[in-house]
Amino acid sequence: PEVYAWGSSQYYEYLVMELLGDLVDAPLLTDEGLTLRNLVALAWQMIDALEHVHSHYLVHCDVKPDNLLFSSDPAVGQIKLIDFGLARPYRDAQTLEHFSPSTLSCSIGTRHYTSINVQYHHSPSRRDDMESLAYTIVDLLCDDLPWGDPELPGSEILTMKQSWSGPAICTGYPPVFGEFVDYTRSLAFEETPDYA
User: Fold this and answer.
1) Is 83 a catalytic residue?
2) Is CB count within 10 Å lower at the N or C end of the chain?
3) Which residues belong to any copy of the Protein kinase domain (predicted)?
């Protein structure tokens, strides 16, 4: 989103950003629903948005439907990625060298969408954002994830993620969706994803 102003006052820090529209899953609530054709178009926009973030040497760390919004102009229908509260660099700002893998004290992000590696408390990289995006796309495709129950503990979600292959999650849908899930899971820590 566009940033128009930022600063601080006596009591607050502020950030003035572009007004955005509906959440990316809003079409699911309409009578028409989200068509496969529209989902594919949205998926490409979401991948482009993530590539843009990664091109600035940041990983988002919380990719999920609630953080993907349409622009305020419905005629444009452009997707914007929001909420950079957990974002972190994946390269050193001076040398541009990729940070080495490390261990976190806890996992970050929303457990239903975080990557398997992040749930194991491994530091996030571009691959983990891509895996979170894959789960987001599957959620929009299937209208839920197999581990989508909000009452499930994180350990059970992790076990379920590990036991479901991409094609199994996307049974009944074009194979490309399941293949995308498996592709994102196969990426190495420092590997540049194929955004095309």
Assistant:
1) no
2) C
3) 1-196
Question: Is 194 part of any domain?
Answer: no
Instruction: Give a yes or no: residue 191 inside a domain.
Output: no
Asked whether residue 9 is assigned to any structural domain, the reply reads no
Instruction: Give me the domain span that covers residue 130.
Output: 21-186
Q: Do 70 and 47 form a contact (C-beta atoms < 8 A)?
A: no
Domain count, the chain: 1
User: In this predicted model, what pLDDT tens digit does every residue of 57-106 receive, in sequence order?
Assistant: 999 999 999 999 988 887 777 899 999 989 999 999 899 999 999 999 88
Cβ atoms of 146 and 157 within 8 Å: the answer is: no
Question: Once rounded to an integer, what is the mean pLDDT over residues 38-59?
Answer: 95
CATH number assigned to the domain comprising residue 164: 1.10.510.10
Q: Give, rounded to a whole angstrom, the gap between the first and last alpha carbons of the chain.
A: 22
Classify residue 28: in a domain, yes or no: yes
In the chain, the percentage of residues whose pLDDT exceeds 90 is 75
More confident residue, 138 or 2: 138
Displacement of CA 119 from its chain's centroid (Å) = 15
Q: Which of 22, 31, 48, 62 is catalytic?
A: 62
Per DSSP (E only), the strands in the chain are: 3-8, 13-17, 20-23, 58-59, 68-71, 79-81, 88-89
The answer, yes or no, to whether residue 28 has pLDDT greater than 70, is: no
